[in-house]
Amino acid sequence: METIEISNFTDLPYGENIHQSAAIAKIDEEIDYEILSENKNLEYIDFLNLTEAVKILGEFFDVNTAVITKESYICSVALGSSIETAYEKAIDCDPLAIFEGTVGFSKTVTSTVAKQIKAMKIKNIIAPKFEQEALTILLKNNEINIIKVNTPLQELLGFNAKDIKITPFGALIQEQNQSKLTKNSFKVVSKARPTQQQAEDAIFAWKVSKHLKSKSAVIAKDLSTKAIVQSKTNDIICTELAMDYACESSKEAVLAIDGAIENIETINAAIQGRIGLIIESGNGAKSNEICKLADKYELSMIATNIRNLKY
């Protein structure tokens, strides 16, 4: 195991709570960024939210992408024909998260987007480029932190080779999750075949699910999340809550689960929500039984043979 050197600590205003002191330290593999706003003092939670945002930006670096994060959670993700469309779709998924949240863009922030952002109370905005007019608009609001990423977005995934968690039992160290879908892992296991749009939504939802805290469920349609539920104890709770959040948007949409579906009730919830396709890892204890139930209701299912658990 190689040595990881941490030095050059910079104090932060406070940690997760005001009574906790905190700092951020330089590491060899950190991304190159610059703060364009007058406020240079990012807080502890800001760095956590920005971290979640860049994971998604790295995943969808080559298309127009907007992501909203808050309280260190990914709240909504959307792709669009333009950055403006992606932003509007992201807000539709979780309108409340944008309030004092962090928003990230994979492409140049335009003046049109800047005007929309100015009207909302957003904490952080991060992107690889900003139009000059957009910067002029955003800089008038000294409460917004404007962060420009200089590192190519495609390099943001796996920027740090190791995932480290400090516990009372010692430091847990593992490789970062670099899983990718391949033709060998991506398999339709149901009789009902997905449409081209459903297949694209399935890949999109799976990529989002990869970065969520387990257990998680993502409902996606038209390359936009309609509901994200994460950090629960089982897939039944995740799916039922996701259906409640998505409401009518779940019809013919895609449901992504980060592991293998473990309960028949999860499929029943998807059927009641009129989900069109489910993408999960498969190879679970009840996978055959679950697949038969999906066939009974003409529900498409894709097995990836990849579990994206994240704790």
What would you note in describing this structure?
By secondary structure, the protein is of the alpha/beta class. Helices cover 28% and strands 26% of the residues. The chain contains 8 helices and 16 strands. It has a 6-stranded mixed β-sheet with strand order 3-8-7-6-4-5. α3 packs parallel to α4 (132-139) and α6 (235-246) runs parallel beside α7. The longest helix is centred in the N-terminal third of the chain and has 16 residues, at 44-59. It is globular and about 60 Å long.
Secondary structure: elements and pairs:
Elements: E1 7-12, E2 22-26, E3 33-35, H1 44-59, E4 64-70, E5 73-80, H2 83-93, E6 102-105, H3 111-118, E7 124-127, H4 132-139, E8 145-149, E9 162-167, E10 170-175, E11 187-188, H5 196-209, E12 216-221, E13 224-230, H6 235-246, E14 254-257, H7 264-272, E15 277-280, H8 287-296, E16 300-303
Parallel strand pairs: 6-7, 7-8, 14-15, 15-16
Antiparallel strand pairs: 1-2, 3-8, 4-5, 4-6, 9-10, 11-16, 12-13, 12-14
